[in-house]
Design goal:
Largest sheet of chain B: 4 strands, antiparallel
CATH topology of the largest domain in chain B: Neuraminidase
Number of helices of chain B: 2
CATH architecture of the largest domain in chain B: 6 Propeller
CATH superfamily of the largest domain in chain B: TolB, C-terminal domain
Order of helices and strands of chain A: HEHEEEHEHE
Strand order of the largest sheet of chain A: 1-6
Number of strands of chain A: 6
Structural class of chain A: alpha+beta
Chains: A alpha+beta, B mainly beta, C alpha+beta, D mainly alpha
Number of domains of chain B: 2
Strand content of chain B: 35-45%
Strand content of chain A: 15-25%
Shape of chain B: elongated
Distance between the termini of chain A: 55 Å
Shape of chain A: elongated
Strand order of the largest sheet of chain B: 1-24-23-22
Helix content of chain A: 10-25%
Oligomer: heterotetramer
Order of helices and strands of chain B: HEEEEEEEEEEEEEEEEEEEEEHEEE
Radius of gyration of chain A: 27 Å
Chain lengths: ~190, ~350, ~575, ~450
């Protein structure tokens, strides 16, 4: 744009303020243009979402309490290929369980969100019911301490509101939260490393 | 209409201002003081095993007399040679070290070394992931025993007079070789009529040793016990119970490594709550070599790293009864001596 | 207008709505205050019971009690969640009704204003302005006061935070001598491929160590470490080896480079994703891949910084190596099929990765590595591409001269020798150029040029007053540097891709099939030794620490005189 | 030349893929005999990119519509409907994220942190309203901003804030803006989003503190029009400045002003400005000139003082940053240990710090160094804002009519129908006779 538009009809001269305004507008527009250009050149059009890096996660329990959602968008997920299918799963059973049953006193998960199903002797499959899981990472602690670490926390994007600033990340003691491209929104554990 | 500014007058306004300032000051001060004595929030979701991580000092029968670092990263196991050299497998290498950790021969392998055993005549058997390589005492490669199964994952070796035993953590079997690499038998695989329950090995920690009583001892992590087999694969007995208490084996899958003292007592290593303990040959808990306190990094690594496959410890015993403990996380070897 | 039935109806609605909101809100708050302490994981009652159970594990009643309580509390928890969700919506609805009703009611009620004309001569506006100024001053005081309080309430425990504030940490740059004793970039510190120390006996392989990923980049060496890069479309890594025993010390994958697209450009295997040789300033190592990912790694393998310089358009894949001088990194990003596709020469600060400057170049893709060195009394950056050979000043990158010399796909890198810049126009000309020109330099400025046995891939190498070239066909030729007269030529009967190098008096030529030929780098042609290594070689050799380092397709090789394997130069 | 190379390359590649595979393999799960298949971990996708572009389109459309409604249709009713739509869409459907109010932080963060590439959508959300404001004033506040719409909705019985107080408080948004931007630039966090009082309502959940704050704002908002927009909203601050240079301006009536002051009554946001008496009274002229002179001198002084004061603030300001806070706690722990309960976030973070104190210290110190400059800038900025506001208050305005202040007016279009001439123009009222009582 140039100074000519924004002028009042030609019969009266441009007032000083009018002139200043045009100048200011011109400058601001150029400024914005430059900034936008600089940034667009870097951004690849993709958007970002938040995700937890399981390697950095310290399982502190903040994910259950700090999310802006009443029931956290962070859930425990299970990398089955890493799991040992233990009969005595330290992610499922409380320390020193009375017996290896699904009775409340033996379960580790406070909301009983882990389902234990028999596969074949001596193997059991463990899977997460995300409607019950509150992302407290208690099972993750158990699994990581003794087992293969096949249980770990991830932000579930069907629930996450993708706040501009993730409320959990602020308080994450492991600084495990980071922005990832929206087309690869998960940091999963796999068999290959 | 009446001009607005009688709604507030200036004095009133400044009154308000000072009040706000005071409030802000108070808040800031309160916050600061709170910071000072900062009581942390308790974590209601803590997985609490702290009571098992303390060892009763009365039970600890050994003391650390020496500690030295190992030459390579990613150590796996160690073994003791005929004249008390220590053989370490770490990364793609097998190192022969003196009892004080002075480096000797180094064998470079094609892949990661998973386990090692040394025969009385000094022959070195190196277990790579799926096959075994044989070296003479000088470190010259003499043979390569083909992989018994592409999916094999060898994690334990024992060399006897005539036989070599290799523990395959994925195929859940202990292979019996003769000294020339011919497979003589498969021990410990699930088998109802020989009432062998079979191994449960969720992570690559299956170990085998030859006991002075002429039987094999194999750890069965998933069943939390140590099993005794004849060379022909008959299950002669088993002991051990799952508990985080000191007399048992903790977690989902322990012990991860075993070795034996000259008098036949058995040394066991555990991960998760890293500790090394001694049991009698018949499985009565006897004493502690090193408790969880001795492996802070290791304990932490297990709760912190992706998984305990990178944690864990191994132990070996020399002719003088010293116990050498390899800490895989800190990458050093501790020499433990029985307390006087 | 006081009490119309409509208005009273509205008011009634408003009151009801308000009451409803209070009710719902109250219930929700109450639920929170009571229930949340009974969450299954918090409830003191439940925890106490579990403690008891730990004491007496077998007691049936205790177990049943726990199970019931646990179920109850979990029910309560779910119930609360549901209630909150519905409650929120109810509250919202109530509030909406309340607001609408109240608005209408208020609207009905508002009396039409009867403003009187203010007749003052600006007195009013003046008063207003002055009050505004004073109250502004008041606000300022408040702000200042609260800031002061915050300042007083917070004391930092972090040592030395104020004084050294603005001083940027000064980077220690290794001395030139350090650069010369090591092999910090493609063909050594100055890109000449020449080292002074002598290498008497026949070389032999001391160790070899597997390189997990393929690539055509040459090894670089600093101190006791050798570095190579490797890559596929799936992953790209840098590898660090201990040069005394060949142990792979670390490998670092370069991934999630900001801005770098997940889909990497297709690159033919014969160029590979890791064709550009790494560079190091002894503080960090720098690696660049065909997908335009640039990374700086610390010597412990940790990532210092990463940068995406793409997108890169290159018909055969990017292959020019990184050039480095001091802690300034130079990358010749020539690309595209024709002249105007933003080819550029980029200079970056090694410590930070900050781009110092960029120079647009009117050339298509090229594969020649730039060199930095003193020519015609000036520090120059010399770059080759079709058709321009261009000299820039170092460090600030002002263009000094350009000469229209080159054709075809420019792969061989330039070298300095005998006061000339020696330039190869692939399989057409070997040209000796005086680098003292300015602006556009006529072709005539070339002191001499020859068309005999001109290489198309490997770069020339020069010693005292001789220049040596080796063609892909294996024809090694020696020219006099002052006149370009051919002195001798010999057929090494092996295909050669790697650029030759000179150790002391030995011309080292590495054949594709693993033939390592050593010739006397002198006026008469004489082959001193020839050994065979069972591998394929495209990368050029590196000379450091009295050893020769070769990057094969499968392995990294360290060669040394067997006799004195660990002799330092 | 490249033909020959091809073969070799292919060979090398094949040779190696095999090795890579087994090098990357990891201890596998057990072999099941009953043919049990490993389930795969589900990965629900994030919101589609095209949906976000859709939002952007809706946003731009709403902006355009708002401008049209203000300048062409001149209809309060339709503008109100538009704002309700925006409240529903950007508020309760999109849950208040993405909104332009926080977006300047993303832009600044991207400018200072090369590792963060700001999404194009965010750029549009940040810049479009500013550009509109440069031509047509705060159309965004009027019709598109859900926060604004919410406050406008709850406004029941407007009380006038005295104009002088209005002026004084109108600098607060700029202080908030400054603070928000330095925290964004240093990568500490997005304060403006953190302390947005209305987004929790859109999400129907949030921390107690912020919910109460929001509720308070709404309660106040019943009697004081748009309290957040006028006295806090940083983005409103930006638009306020932008619309000072706006090409067109909101006019109460296209016809002549009869100076009836009705529009002044009708504006709940204290944006209406009364005409100044023609000519200048000589007895004040010199005084005003002198004051202006002094204030012009004062401006740089204020800025410098601000910079100086700011340089003292970095250690306090930087404590908000997690990295700094961590080292602070760690250091305090060295002096006077506090027993944190096991596995508590504090204990865990301290453990992390203890593993590598040097790195922790370095991170913290680097941040504090960043904050030195940042705080100096903030201080200078505060000084500048105050100085400029003082000057603005001392410039003599010459207005012949009642007209909305370019900056303060949120273009809500309330004043239009309050003007008798406009009512006549719209045919709501006979051209002749007294203004009928409503």
């Amino acid at each position: 744009m140039n100074l000519t538009n924004g002028q009042p009809p030609a019969n009266e001269p441009v007032s000083r303020r009018q002139f200043l305004r045009n100048g200011a507008r011109l400058m601001t527009m150029t400024g914005l243009g430059v900034a936008a250009g600089a940034l667009v050149s870097r951004s690849n059009g993709a958007a970002y979402v938040w995700q937890i890096d399981p390697a950095k996660c310290l399982h502190c329990g903040n994910c259950a309490t700090q999310c802006v959602l009443e029931q956290s968008a962070v859930k425990c997920v299970h990398a089955y290929a890493v799991c040992g299918y233990c009969q005595l799963c330290t992610g499922f059973f409380a320390p020193e369980p009375n017996e290896l049953t699904t009775a409340a006193e033996n379960q580790l998960c406070p909301t009983a969100a882990i389902k234990r199903t028999y596969v074949e002797d001596p193997y059991y499959q463990y899977s997460i019911d995300e409607n019950l899981c509150i992302g407290c990472a208690k099972c993750v602690q158990g699994c990581n301490r003794f087992g293969n670490g096949s249980l770990f926390l991830q932000i579930r994007h069907d629930r996450c509101l993708n706040c501009n600033e993730c409320a959990i990340s602020r308080t994450c003691p492991g600084q495990a939260f980071r922005r990832v491209p929206v087309d690869h929104p998960y940091l999963l554990k796999t068999t290959s490393r | 209409m009446k001009p607005e500014f009688e709604l507030y007058d200036r004095r009133e306004f400044f009154g308000v201002v000072t009040k706000t300032a005071a409030v802000i000051g108070l808040v800031a001060g309160a916050k600061a003081s709170a910071e000072e004595q900062g009581q942390g929030t308790a974590n209601p979701f803590a997985y609490d095993i702290s009571r098992f991580q303390k060892t009763d000092p009365k039970l600890v029968a050994y003391e650390e007399v020496n500690r030295w670092p190992i030459p390579h990263k990613e150590a796996r196991r160690l073994a003791i040679g005929p004249n008390d050299q220590i053989y370490l497998c770490a990364g793609n290498f097998i190192n022969c070290l003196s009892q004080t950790g002075q480096p000797g021969v180094e064998l470079a392998l094609a892949g990661p070394a998973c386990c090692v055993a040394v025969a009385r005549d000094g022959t070195i058997y190196a277990g790579l992931r799926d096959h075994i390589e044989v070296f003479d005492s000088k470190g010259a490669k003499t043979a390569l025993w083909e992989s018994p199964d592409p999916k094999s994952w060898l994690t334990g070796l024992a060399a006897g007079e005539k036989d070599v035993f290799a523990a395959d953590a994925h195929k859940l079997v202990v292979l019996r070789y003769d000294r020339h690499g011919k497979i003589l038998g498969r021990i410990g695989h699930k088998n109802a009529e020989r009432n062998v329950p079979g191994f449960i090995v969720p992570s690559p920690f299956l170990d085998v040793i030859i006991h002075r009583d002429g039987l094999l001892r194999v750890n069965n992590p998933g069943r939390h016990r140590v099993e005794a087999y004849t060379f022909d694969g008959d299950l002669e007995g088993a002991w051990g119970k799952p508990t985080a208490a000191i007399e048992g084996f903790c977690g989902c899958c322990n012990p991860i490594a075993i070795t034996t003292l000259a008098d036949g007592r058995i040394v066991t290593c555990e991960k998760g709550i890293p500790r090394v303990k001694i049991y009698s040959a018949s499985g009565e808990f006897e004493s502690v070599v090193a408790g969880a306190e001795s492996f802070p990094e290791n304990a932490h690594a297990c709760s912190d790293l992706n998984d305990c496959i990178h944690g864990g410890i191994d132990a070996a015993v020399d002719s003088e009864g010293h116990i050498y403990i390899l800490d895989i996380v800190t990458g050093d070897v501790r020499v433990m001596k029985r307390k006087a | 207008m006081s009490k119309t039935p409509l208005r009273s109806a509205l008011l009634l609605t408003a009151w009801i709505a308000a009451f409803f909101c209070l009710l719902v809100g109250g219930v929700m708050v109450y639920e929170h205050l009571t229930a949340s302490s009974n969450d299954p994981w918090k409830s003191p009652q439940l925890l106490a019971l579990k403690e008891k159970l730990a004491a007496s594990p077998k007691s049936e009643p205790l177990q049943n009690e726990i199970r019931e309580l646990d179920l109850k509390y979990r029910r309560q928890f779910r119930h609360r969640l549901a209630l909150d969700r519905t409650g929120a919506w109810l509250l919202l609805g109530g509030a909406f009704v309340l607001v609408l009703a109240a608005r209408k009611a208020a609207a009905l009620n508002n009396a039409p204003p009867r403003p009187q004309r203010r007749l003052d001569d600006g007195e009013h506006s003046r008063k207003l302005a002055s009050r505004a100024r004073w109250s502004l001053a008041g606000v300022t005081v408040v702000v200042a006061g609260s800031l002061l309080l915050i300042r007083l309430a917070n004391t930092s425990a972090i040592p030395g935070n104020s004084a050294v504030a603005h001083k940027a940490p000064v980077e220690d740059v290794p001395t030139l001598a350090e650069f010369q004793t090591n092999w910090p970039r493609f063909r050594g510190w100055d890109g000449s491929g020449v080292v002074a120390w002598d290498f008497k006996s026949t070389p032999a392989v001391l160790w070899h160590s597997a390189i997990p990923l393929p690539g055509h980049s040459s090894p670089i060496v600093w101190g006791d470490r050798a570095f190579v890069s490797g890559g596929t479309s799936a992953q790209r890594k840098a590898f660090c080896y201990n040069i005394t025993n060949g142990a792979l010390l670390w490998q670092r994958a370069i991934e999630n480079v900001p801005g770098s697209p997940a889909k990497v450009p297709d690159v033919p295997e014969d160029t590979s994703y890791a064709a550009a040789t790494m560079a190091t300033d002894g503080r960090r190592v720098y690696v660049f891949f065909a997908n335009a990912d640039l990374a700086a790694l610390n010597f412990d393998g940790s990532v210092a910084w990463t940068k995406y310089l793409g997108p890169l358009k290159n018909p055969y894949g990017y292959a020019a190596s990184l050039a480095i001088w001091g802690n300034t990194l130079l990358i010749q990003l020539d690309q595209g099929e024709n002249r105007a596709e933003n080819s550029k020469l980029v200079s970056l600060q090694g410590a930070s990765g900050r781009v110092l400057w960029e120079r647009i170049r009117p050339v298509p893709a090229s594969w020649a590595t730039p060199i930095v060195g003193e020519a015609a009394g000036k520090m120059q950056i010399i770059t080759l591409a079709n058709p321009w050979a261009i000299g820039y000043t170092f460090p600030n990158g002002k263009e000094l001269w350009r000469a229209k010399l080159l054709e075809n796909e420019v792969v061989p890198s330039p070298i300095l020798g005998g006061g000339f810049v020696l330039v190869v126009s692939p399989s057409s000309k070997l040209i000796a150029l005086r680098a003292d020109g300015a602006g556009k330099v006529a072709q005539a400025a070339a002191a001499w040029s020859t068309e005999e046995n001109v290489p198309d891939i490997s770069s020339p190498v020069s010693k005292s007053n001789l220049v040596f070239t080796v063609t892909s066909g294996g024809m090694a030729t020696c020219f006099g540097i002052n006149d370009g007269k051919k002195i001798w030529e010999t057929n090494l009967d092996t295909e050669v891709q790697a650029s030759p190098g000179i150790i002391g008096d030995n011309l080292i030529v590495l054949g594709q099939t693993g033939t390592l030929v050593t010739l006397q780098a002198g006026r008469d042609c004489h082959e001193t030794s020839r050994i065979q290594i069972p591998d394929k070689f495209v990368a050029s050799p590196a000379f450091a620490d009295g050893h020769i380092f070769l990057r094969g397709m499968t392995n990294l090789y360290c060669l040394g005189p067997v006799a004195n394997a660990l002799k330092k130069p | 030349m490249f033909r020959r190379l091809k073969i070799i390359g292919a060979l090398g590649l094949m040779l190696f893929l095999a090795l890579i595979v087994c090098a990357e393999q990891r201890f596998p799960p057990p072999d099941f005999e009953n043919g049990y298949q490993l389930p795969t971990t589900s990965t629900p996708a994030a919101r589609h990119l095209w949906l976000q572009y859709g939002d952007t389109a809706v946003f731009l459309a709403a902006l355009g519509l708002a401008v049209w409604l203000i300048y062409k249709k001149r209809s309060r009713r339709w503008l109100f409907c538009l704002s309700l739509f925006s409240l529903a869409y950007f508020g309760f459907y999109r849950r208040g994220c993405i909104c332009p109010i926080g977006s300047p932080q993303n832009v600044v963060y991207a400018l200072f942190n090369p590792n963060y590439a700001v999404p194009v959508t965010v750029l549009v959300f940040c810049f479009a309203p500013i550009i509109v404001a440069l031509f047509a004033g705060r159309a965004f506040c009027a019709g598109v901003c859900p926060q604004g719409a919410l406050q406008d909705l709850v406004l029941i019985k407007p009380i006038k804030v005295p104009l002088w107080l209005e002026h004084a408080l109108s600098i607060i948004p700029y202080l908030f803006l400054g603070a928000g931007l330095i925290y964004a630039a240093t990568g500490t966090g997005f304060m403006i989003c953190r302390y947005d009082p209305f987004v929790p309502f859109f999400r129907l959940s949030g921390s107690t503190f912020i919910l109460t704050a929001g509720a308070l704002f709404l309660l106040i908002g019943m009697f004081i029009g748009r309290p957040y927009c006028r006295f806090l909203c940083p983005y409103g601050g930006i638009l306020r400045v932008a619309s000072l240079a706006s090409k067109w301006r909101v006019r109460v009536t296209p016809d002549v002003c009869t100076q009836c002051q009705l529009c002044e009554q009708s504006c709940p946001f204290g944006a209406m400005r009364e005409p100044t008496p023609p000519g200048t009274n000589p007895k004040w002229l010199t005084a005003e000139r002198r004051r202006l002179g002094w204030l012009l001198v004062l401006l740089p002084v204020l800025v410098l003082v601000g910079v100086w004061a700011g340089s003292k603030l970095n250690s306090a300001a930087s404590k908000v940053d997690p990295a700094v806070a961590l080292y602070e706690r760690y250091a305090r722990q060295q002096i006077k240990p506090v027993q944190y309960s096991a596995m508590s976030p504090e204990a865990l973070s301290l453990q992390r710090a203890a593993e590598n104190p040097d790195a922790t210290l370095k991170a913290a110190r680097d941040l504090q160094h960043r904050f030195i400059l940042a705080c100096e800038l903030l201080g200078g900025w505060i000084g500048l804002v105050i100085g400029l506001k003082l000057i603005a208050l001392s410039l003599r305005q010459n207005r012949t009519d009642f007209e909305p202040d370019r900056g303060a007016c949120v273009a809500c279009a309330r004043c239009f129908t309050s003007c008798p001439n406009e009512r006549v123009r719209l045919g709501l009222m006979p051209a002749t006779g007294e203004p009928a009582s409503l």
